[in-house]
Amino acid sequence: MHAEEIGLLLKQERGQFLEFVSAYEYRRGGIQKKRDEELAREIVRILSGMANADGGTLLVGVEPDRSVTGIPHEPIEVQSLIQAPQTLLTPPLSPASAKIRLGNLLLIKFEVASALEVYRVTGGRSFYRVATETPSLPTEQIQALKEAKRTVLYERQQPLNAAWDDLDPTAVAGLLARIEDPRPPEAVLAHSYHLVDTSRRPPTPSMASLLLFAKDPAFWHPRCGIDFVKYEGTERQHGASLNVVKRIRFEAPLVRLIDEAVGRIKEHVRERTVLHDLFFRERLEYPTFAWQEALVNAVAHRDYGIAGAAIEIWMFDDRIEVRSPGPPPPPVTLEQLRQHKSIHFSRNPLIVRVLADLGYLKEMGEGIPRIFQEMEHYGLRPPEFSAEGFLFIVTLRNTPVYDEDTLRWLNQFPAAQINFRQRRLLAYAFCHGKTFSTAEYERIAEVDRDAAYREIRSMVKNGIVAPLKPKSRSYRIIERL
């Protein structure tokens, strides 16, 4: 069975929950085995980063390209590698480990769950797993991470009256089919996902497994679904002026909830004629990826400890709001989101891992930057992030970037003074902080560096833009109106 499991892992790409480490180092002089101290520190860096994040699996003896080269070290050195997480980390970490033989090659497999503590290499730094990288954490983020860890207990709770039979076997089977794991469901949920406690008979499910797979998830959490409300107009009205035109409540285990909600909500995303790149075109009023990613993030990262509120999606004539219980978990901040930084922290790491394996969460930490890109590509305003009481709100507006104010400002420049590419760039800059860089000009105008330089210099000469500072590659627009 071990060989079968390794075969399944080797079919997967490195990512948030899987990493490969070679026992060899490659230099000009040839190939040689890594010193056991060096290999041990590499192992504990990755394992501690996974434990500090969402958990994961580490295979030692495999190259980054998934070729198996084995561990050539002596038995006593191999044993020190297995014990390294306990001897080199503070506090000591005890991941599940196994020595596995593939032919005459030895591998070590480590599995670690998301931890409630923050681990650091003894006398050194703390690490955090994000996608395929395991960077060290700045000091200020370590404290924020420690505080955030105190809020992730909800999904690990085990309700006293919960039993294995409360899980929907077809929902669990869907996950096993997706990951192609031949082991019994109990073993997969217990050992790979840490969702059930098999020390009891029958196995006891955690709150995360009930939210993900329960036959009746609302029995365990009264508002774990999604409420979709469509309004007529641009504001909510009440009483005699109530303007609700459609209301749908979605209640299903989380492994089905996203598809059910997306399938019905997309019927209400209209096609419309919009002005984009200075041409009128028929397209959906919101980029598909943008609103669906906001919905998926709400399901994955909401605070399920707030049991009296559901995820709400409000659709108005001019915008869609995804309203999720719970503010962004530290160390994630609203300001970081507004700056579309690549950041990642899971309030619900057990739930996140299942949703990731089902394909709902692909590039960890890249969802928000991608929403910005999609909105920009559609010629729409950037996404907005805000907090309202205990709610975190993502707002996507279907208003084109080229609104009346922008067009009025653009129209002060005669066609003989700026070409089509310059006009598009100026419209973009006018709505994105009144500044732009040479690299942004190349991307938006779709020209090479030399053409970008010539056309920017032309606008500088005409007094339309000015460098932010001498010899700078960043510019500001000069507002004449």
Explain how this protein is built.
The chain is of the alpha+beta class and 481 residues long. The protein folds into 4 domains: 149 residues, Schlafen, AAA domain (Methyltransferase, Cobalt-precorrin-4 Transmethylase, Domain 2); 66 residues, no CATH class; 160 residues, Heat Shock Protein 90, CATH 3.30.565.60; 74 residues, Arc Repressor Mutant, subunit A. Helices cover 36% and strands 21% of the residues. It contains 17 helices and 21 strands. The strands form 7 sheets. Strands 12-11-15-16-18-17 form a 6-stranded mixed sheet. It has a 4-stranded mixed sheet with strand order 1-4-7-6, sandwiched between helices. Strand 15 and strand 16 form a beta hairpin. Helix 2 runs parallel beside helix 3 and helix 16 crosses helix 17. About 1% of the residues have low confidence.
Choose one word for the global shape.
Answer: globular
Overall mean pLDDT: 87
Number of helices: 17
Q: Which stretches are poorly predicted, pLDDT < 50 over at least 5 residues?
A: 276-280
CATH structural fold name of the largest domain: Heat Shock Protein 90
The CATH C-level class name of the largest domain: Alpha Beta
Measured by DSSP, the beta-strand proportion falls in: 15-25%
Overall domain count: 4
Count the beta strands: 21
Instruction: Give me the CATH architecture of the largest domain, please.
Output: 2-Layer Sandwich
Strand order of the largest sheet: 12-11-15-16-18-17
Radius of gyration: 26 Å
**Straight-line N-to-C gap:** 73 Å
Tell me the structural class: alpha+beta
Helix content: 25-40%
Task: Specify the biggest β-sheet.
Answer: 6 strands, mixed
